[in-house]
Design goal:
The structure holds two protein chains of two kinds. By secondary structure, chain A is an all-beta fold. Chain A has one domain. Chain A contains one helix and twelve strands; from the N terminus they run ββββββββαββββ. Chain A has a twelve-stranded antiparallel sheet with strand order 6-5-4-3-2-1-12-11-10-9-8-7. The longest helix of chain A has 6 residues. The radius of gyration of chain A is 16 Å and the shape is globular. In chain B, strands 1, 4, 5, 6, 7, 8, 9 and 10 form an eight-stranded antiparallel sheet that branches. Chain B has a five-stranded mixed sheet with strand order 11-13-18-15-16, with no helix packed on it. In chain B, helix 3 packs across helix 6. The longest helix of chain B has 23 residues. The relative contact order of chain B is 0.07. At the A-B interface, strand 7 and strand 8 of A face strand 4 and helix 7 of B.
Chain lengths: 200, 830
């Protein structure tokens, strides 16, 4: 099984992570790239993940992971926005450019249903996702170019697929069973990301 | 109750019951409305279509320089530079669909940057509102941004509530329902909502900033759009989806964008610099309410409130002032008022785009005060001030080398008292002042300033147009310019420049000559347009070309063989230059080859006696005289050693044909050694008619550098002379030579006064020279003080007898290590 979120190692890198993201314009097909660094820090019992552009000095996104009533809480705040939104168990942001999605990789079954709720203007907006865990063979993981050269990933490998209520793929993350960060991620908005360094 | 009444009563009861039923079973509806607006209203800007590349070409805007070209100008000093080239390579697409452009980039910029744009002058480059918005637009063409699917009404509703209502921020929306993308910035909404059961019906009017504006548009052009949709609620009232209704089914937003961080794809555009430019307003001559000093130069400025300037000048100075309105509008005029020290009005003008102000005024009661105002400052005016001051003393450096040569200056106040208001001003080829690059400064008595041209604070983008450098002062100072390569060749420009109505450019070369290059110019020194007649002659006196040109006031007319109008030139020929009007002209030439560089001001044509102040001994050096006969008759020039008196046995006669130029080496004739009776005699030259000429020193090998000097004449003689610069060099490769002669008929005693860097007289190093009539003395400065010579900064030569006159020259030379020739040689008459 994959390690449990916030209980063990997943999304808890020991040091800085480096991620490469590629953004494909769905309309024009053109691509742009961004290099990210993720700097973790611990604040009391909370784990904080700061997402920077590799050459930036101010985080574009900040996550705080903590537990409340045995549930994982994920507080998310983006740069330039006052509001801090707290999600439960899952953070799926297909519109957001920073690869900061958090999935429930410790779910007991291989399939689970989760809801994200976010508030705006006094109204709550709810989205329901189905998460499906699926094993991936090492040959496929390597052959598809999902694992960057130099990243230690002995396997076995799993994909966590996130589907919307219509069954369309929204996001998927490839994990190594022993990893504390995903190896590869892609989402419906045309973003593909690779772990480049760290995360062992 | 009658049957009819009973029937009516029963019907009433049925109807009433039905109405009760309808009311009872109709779901309860609630309706409410809300209006919210972002904290900052986004600015409108132009969308810069790709097929025109207006950002790089100015197409659709104001032409060149375009916004990116201005950025290149500011960054690199020229355009097109790296940014413009990059844009034309990467973004410009003449075949792009006409709707492709920077609307999305503008929208992100307008959403992200809470700015109010004003024009400003940056290093004397006007950045208009359109320039700044254009640059800011490109700075946002690769933003890190949240991008959502606005085709879903629940998502659109969330964005309105989250960004506009909760965050107080605008966001970008593609509001075109079709394939084309037209992005705008939504900053306000008026929303009516009706809740009915598990649905929420919404009618919303959004207000957004438009991009169909001229690039210089200031503020926000607001447009609105209406959308209707229904949101689906779950049992707890939370929104789980939605659908467009009415016209919005076909016409609704597409992609939504909220920028998190500015980024550009251009490697040559610095966001922080663009932000600095965008925030900047007004100009560098603004210091609150105080009057700003206005010194010679051309200023591109912004009028945002009253601008007041003080023009410091001295009594008798001529002030030439031009004020031009450049804001591209025919709107309200700019009013200019010029007053003197007492407030008396000297001039007043209402300045329109096509009607600039031009004033020439002689200072009677300086300083002057200039005030510029307009009635309405809501749209800042852009204007240009061009101010030139003709002072009592001016010295011109007519040529600024731009081919990698160094150019150094020595500015020396050799007088006994300080001089205030000394300035160095650059000029362009049209004779317009570009910038005062030094001063006004006060030069203390005996003060010498040494500097290179590169040390002066000229603006990088005005470097190419900088053609001349003029020293302006109320009293005489010494101004020496030496320039050359690092290891070979050196030229010199120094005071003594001749002006007149008839001059000679003594040397021209054929285009692409194997012997080297020649360039030069004629300058209209007057304040009126003049007609210039230039006759080009061969060395033998054959007329080769006749050129008539009109030269504007202060304008410089370049002479470059191979270029207009000198497409062909006779090797070794010369040019006779005259004006039709009685107006002053000056000129210069620079002749160079691999090993030599020699510069001369254009030579005066007159009939007086000339002097060669020193003839080198023949063993090592050549003294060459170049004579030109600007007459259509023969002209006999007689060389006579002054010490010979009435003895004409040693004279040399040169008969020049009409318009002939001849070079004569005279070291064998007159280069006597110390045992000869005429040793160190100046050579007097007298012609039957007017003539022009110069003398040159060079080593006999002909391989080294050479130095040419105009033949001296009576006007050059003074009671005191100055060697303006002695470097005190302790490197023996460099030497400074000086020659002093007595042109009078009386014996003269000359005191040689060396001064140190503090301007203090080094009395113990001073010497006296006793010069017979017609005699000269030459020496190395180093020989004056031995080891202490390095303390010397400059040297004065003063005739003891009141009314006595002397003449002289100086020469700087260098012999590089291991070389047996003087590879750098330059000098001037004193």
């Amino acid at each position: 099984m994959l390690p449990p979120v916030a209980h063990g190692e997943a999304y808890h890198p020991e040091g800085a992570l480096h991620i490469l993201s590629e953004y494909r314009e769905l309309r024009s097909g053109s691509t742009r790239k961004a290099n990210w660094k993720v700097l973790p820090e611990d604040l009391d019992a909370h784990r904080i993940l700061n997402f920077y552009l590799a050459d930036g000095n101010e985080p574009l996104c900040k996550l705080m992971l903590f537990h409340e009533k045995d549930k994982l809480k994920i507080q998310w705040q983006a740069r330039g926005v006052r509001k801090k939104t707290v999600f439960e168990e899952i953070l799926v942001l297909p519109d957001f450019p920073v690869p900061c999605d958090i999935l429930p990789i410790d779910m007991d079954e291989n399939t689970g249903t989760f809801k994200t709720r976010r508030e705006a203007g006094g109204r709550w907006f709810v989205t329901t996702y189905k998460v499906v865990r699926k094993e991936v063979g090492p040959q496929e993981a390597m052959g598809q170019g999902w694992i960057r050269a130099g990243v230690k990933a002995p396997g076995p490998f799993y994909f966590l697929n996130v589907l919307d209520s219509s069954g369309n793929m929204v996001l998927r993350q490839l994990w190594d069973d022993n990893g504390n960060w995903w190896l590869y991620e892609e989402n419906v908005s045309g973003r593909r990301s690779w772990l480049v360094e760290g995360g062992e | 109750m009658s049957p009819v009444k009973r029937l009516l009563h029963r019907r009433f009861l049925i109807l009433f019951s039905l109405m009760l039923c309808i009311v009872a079973f109709t779901p309860v509806s609630t309706a409410w409305s809300e209006t919210h607006e972002a904290d900052a209203v986004p600015w409108s800007g132009y969308w810069w279509p790709f097929y025109r590349a207006g950002l790089a070409t100015g197409s659709g805007y104001l032409g060149h320089p375009a916004p990116l070209e201005k950025y290149d100008l500011l960054t690199y000093g020229f355009y097109p530079g790296r940014l413009t080239s990059w844009y034309l390579q990467e973004i410009y697409d003449p075949d792009a669909p006409t709707w492709w452009g920077h609307c999305g980039d503008w929208a992100q910029a307008a959403c992200f940057e809470n700015l109010q744009f004003f024009p400003s002058s940056e290093d004397n480059i006007i950045f208009r509102v359109g320039d700044k918005k254009g640059l800011m637009t490109l700075a946002h063409n690769n933003d890190i941004a949240v991008r959502a699917d606005g085709t879903r009404p629940d998502v659109f509703h969330y964005w309105l509530l989250n960004y506009v209502k909760d965050e107080g921020k605008a966001f970008v929306a593609d509001l075109d329902p079709d394939d084309e993308v037209w992005s705008y910035v939504i900053f306000k909404y008026d929303m009516n909502k009706t809740n009915s059961g598990n649905t929420l019906s919404v009618v919303v009017k959004v207000s957004y900033a438009d991009d169909m504006v001229f690039p210089d548009y200031m503020g926000t052009q607001v447009r609105t759009a209406n959308f209707t949709y229904t949101l689906f609620l779950d049992d707890t009232g939370e929104i789980v989806g939605g659908e467009w209704t009415g016209n919005s089914i076909g016409e609704h937003p597409d992609q939504l964008t909220f920028p998190l961080m500015a980024r550009t794809t251009s490697p040559d555009l610095d966001y922080e610099e663009v932000l600095r430019l965008a925030r900047s307003k007004d100009d560098f001559l603004e210091a609150g309410d105080t009057e700003e000093p206005l010194i010679p130069g051309t200023y591109n400025l912004i009028l945002m409130d009253e601008d007041r300037y003080e023009i410091s000048c001295s009594q008798g100075d001529t002030v030439v002032l031009d004020v031009e309105k450049l804001d591209g509008s025919q709107e309200e005029e700019v009013s200019a008022v010029l007053t003197d020290r007492e407030g008396a009005m000297l001039a007043r003008a209402d300045i329109f785009e096509e009607d600039p102000m031009h004033i020439i005024v002689t200072a009677q009661d300086p300083p002057f005060h200039l005030s510029l105002t307009r009635q309405d400052y809501s749209r800042p005016s852009i204007y240009r001030i061009k101010i030139d001051i003709k002072k009592a003393f001016a010295r011109e450096i007519p040529y600024i080398p731009k081919n990698g040569m160094w150019s150094g200056f020595a500015l020396t106040n050799y007088g006994d008292s300080s001089i205030d208001g000394v300035m160095l001003t650059t000029y362009n080829a049209q004779g317009d002042p570009v910038q005062t690059v030094l001063g006004p400064v006060e030069l203390q008595a005996g003060e010498k300033q040494l500097f290179f041209f590169d040390d002066l604070g000229w603006r990088i983008h005005e470097y190419q147009e900088t053609e001349r450098l003029v020293l302006l002062s109320d009293r005489p100072v010494s101004f020496l310019n030496l320039f050359g390569n690092n290891d070979t060749r050196m030229g010199c420009f120094v005071q003594g420049q001749k002006k007149g109505t008839h001059l000679v450019i003594p040397d021209v070369m054929a285009p692409m000559s194997m012997d080297g290059n020649m360039s030069g110019a004629v300058i209209n020194e007057s304040v009126q347009d003049i007609q210039l007649i230039m006759d080009v002659y061969t060395e033998d006196g054959v007329l080769f070309n006749e050129i008539d040109e009109v030269l504007g006031k202060g304008e410089k007319f370049s002479i470059v063989p191979g270029n207009y109008p000198f497409y062909s030139m006779p090797q070794g020929g010369w040019i006779d230059v005259e004006t039709v009007e009685d107006a002053q002209i000056s000129g210069y030439q620079s002749v160079s080859s691999v090993q030599r560089l020699d510069t001369l001001f254009a030579l005066p044509v007159n009939a007086g006696q000339r002097i060669i102040p020193h003839v080198t001994p023949p063993e090592r050096w050549i003294t060459r005289v170049t004579l030109i006969n600007p007459n259509h008759e023969e002209n006999r020039i007689k060389f006579h050693p002054a010490l010979a008196g009435e003895d004409h046995s040693q004279d040399l006669d040169i008969l020049l044909g009409p318009w002939e130029k001849r070079k004569v080496e005279i070291q064998e004739w007159f280069g006597w050694n110390s045992q000869d009776p005429f040793f160190h005699s100046v050579i007097e030259l007298n012609g039957e008619r007017t003539f022009a000429g110069y003398y040159t020193y060079l080593e006999s090998s002909g391989l080294g550098d050479e130095a040419g000097f105009p033949l001296l004449e009576e006007a050059d003689f003074r009671s005191d002379l100055v060697l303006p610069h002695y470097s005190g060099e302790n490197n023996t490769a460099w030497w400074t030579g000086v020659g002093i002669f007595n042109p009078s008929s009386e014996k003269e005693t000359v005191t040689v006064e060396p001064y140190d860097r503090e301007g203090e007289l080094l009395e113990d190093l001073g010497i006296q020279l006793h010069l017979n009539p017609g005699a000269y003395h030459v020496m190395f400065v180093r020989s004056m003080g031995g080891a202490r010579a390095k303390e010397i900064s400059f040297v004065k030569f003063v005739v003891e007898e009141p009314g006595g006159l002397i003449g002289g020259f100086y020469l700087y030379g260098n012999r590089s290590d291991g070389m047996d020739l003087t590879d750098r040689l330059a000098g001037a008459n004193m």
